Amino acid sequence: MLLTLFLLGLVYAVLIAVLIAAGAGAATIAIVAAGLFLVQYFTSDKIALTSMGAREVSPQDAPQLHAIVERLCVQANLPKPRVAIAQTRMPNAFAVGRSPKKATVCVTTGILDLLEPAELEGVLAHELTHVLNRDVMVMTIASFFASIAAFITQWGFLFGGGFGGGRNNQNNQGGNAFIFVILVSAAVYIISWLLLQTLSRYREFAADRGSAIITGRPSALISALLKISGNMKHIPQQDLRAASGELAAFYIFPPKAKQSIANAFSTHPTLEARIAALEKLEAQLQGTAR
User: Fold this and answer.
1) How far, in Å, are 99, 112, 124, 237 from residue 84 at the CA level?
2) 191 pLDDT higher than 90
3) Neighbour count for residue 18 (Cβ, 10 Å)
4) Are the CB atoms for 105 and 124 separated by under 8 Å?
5) 56: closest CA among 92, 91, 89, 96?
6) Does the pLDDT value for residue 181 go beyond 80?
7) Which end of the chain is more exposed for a tag (fewer CB within 10 A), N or C?
8) Largest Cα–Cα distance in the chain?
9) By residue range, what is the domain housing residue 206?
10) 70 an active-site residue?
């Protein structure tokens, strides 16, 4: 994960250097970037919950769900997050929030209907590990400049006047700089997107491991993942497509009936890889590992 973050930082440094070399003011870049980052940092959790139609529930509304979350938080030494439920048949769960004190754990009605208490505990421990590791903040920061690169690529003509000056004898130079910035931005977006998918997969392995350690029962999470995967095949494709998007990386299981052909393009490890890692950890916890 550290290596992936380092490579992302290196790619983004190239983007900033090219923007400055092309004539964009460093102060302008800093102001615009800071403004966009603050908006993304402070609103991403609210946008995610709203997009899912999730509503916060009290202990009176969902006593069993709150009891599980509270017990796991004590075991993980975490402040109790807000708890929300989204009305959808898709069995899934996710956590949002920039810090443990600002976190919200959300489950769908589909997953509540599907899983046994021990399996649900494994899923919630997975999500609480994301909170403990501040994964939402990590992914928000890591994806920020990728968003800027995509913005420049799609709407680069809006920045054209800032590159290379506006005098007649500089028009050709400015046009070349503008094209170069667009090409570099496109390359940065593609490379950073691939690195972000890699980082996301590492996060999922780490969260699975955290769930197993907190609950002491990797088998419960294995059972939950198998049930979610099997049930996902029966969810209408339009519902799965509606759930796919920026939030997909934060689900415990990707909202797709079929796995990606190339693992390099997936936000999650394959189900087989996750189960193998959990089985290995179960053997270690039971002292039967070779």
Assistant:
1) 17, 12, 12, 24
2) no
3) 18
4) yes
5) 96
6) no
7) C
8) 76
9) 2-286
10) no
Q: What is the pLDDT, as a whole number, of residue 48? A: 81
- Nearest-5° Cα angle at 93, 91 to 95: 170
Task: Give me the catalytic one of 70, 116, 121, 127.
Answer: 127
Rounded to whole angstroms, what are the CA distances from 192 to 1, 148, 250? 14, 11, 18
Q: Tell me the two tokens of residue 76.
A: 């993980």
Read off φ and ψ for residue 169, nearest 5 degrees: -75, 0
Q: Name every residue whose Cβ is closer than 8 Å to that of residue 213 and which is 6 or more positions away in sequence.
A: 281
Task: Give the Cα separation of 48 and 37 in Å (integer).
Answer: 16
- Give the per-residue pLDDT at 227: 96
Output the six-digit token pair for 59.
Answer: 């202990």
Token pair recorded at residue 290: 């070779």
Q: Which residue type, as a one-letter code, is found at position 256?
A: K
Highest mean pLDDT among 5-9, 11-15, 17-21, 96-100: 96-100
How many structural domains are present in the chain? 1
Cα-based distances in Å from 260 to 138, 210, 238, 278: 24, 25, 18, 21
CB neighbourhood size of 243 (10 A)? 21
As a whole number of angstroms, the distance between CA 266 and CA 259 comes to 8
Q: Which residue has the tokens 């095949």?
A: 233
Nearest to 274 by CA among 247, 254, 244: 254
Do you know the residue count of the chain? 290
In the chain, where does DSSP find H-type helix?
2-21, 26-51, 63-76, 109-114, 117-132, 135-155, 171-215, 218-232, 237-243, 271-286
At residue 34, the 3 state secondary structure works out as helix
Assess contact for 182 and 153: CB atoms under 8 A: yes
Bridge partners of 201, per DSSP, are none
